[in-house]
Amino acid sequence: MPVRIDAMDRKILSELQRDAAQSLDDIARAVGSSKTPVWNRIRKLREADVIGPTTVALNAEALGFEATFFVLIRTSEHEADWQNRFLAALQARPEVQEAHRLAGDIDYILKVRVQNARAYDAFYQALISEVRVFNVTALLSMEEIKSTRALPL
Hints:
This protein is an alpha+beta fold. The chain has five helices and four strands; from the N terminus they run αααβαββαβ. Strands 2-3-1-4 form a four-stranded antiparallel sheet. Strand 2 (96-101) and strand 3 form a beta hairpin.
């Protein structure tokens, strides 16, 4: 059952999206409330799975992950066994930051973050050794113009 989100919840969620590490006092001040009601709302939103796990956004380039590839995959395999093996292979690879099943000519698109083209090739070789694909096209991102996980609340 979906949880009801009101204007105060949206303000709190916006603050958490902006900086989840800020103090409860800072969030309460920003949304015009006091600490206890804000904490209760955050607890309610966590229990309803509106708020997921809290993580830290790392600077990929500072850590040596300088290449982002968008990988377009077409397959002629659509059986449950193939899909299970494919999904398991993607889950096992930390390089895969996102994976989407698509409608249209392309079956899947992956966002793969690696150190360089050689690391991408190692990823590609490992993937195709585990699951059969019909066609793979890799597109190297030359520049990240915008990236956000924030929802437009």
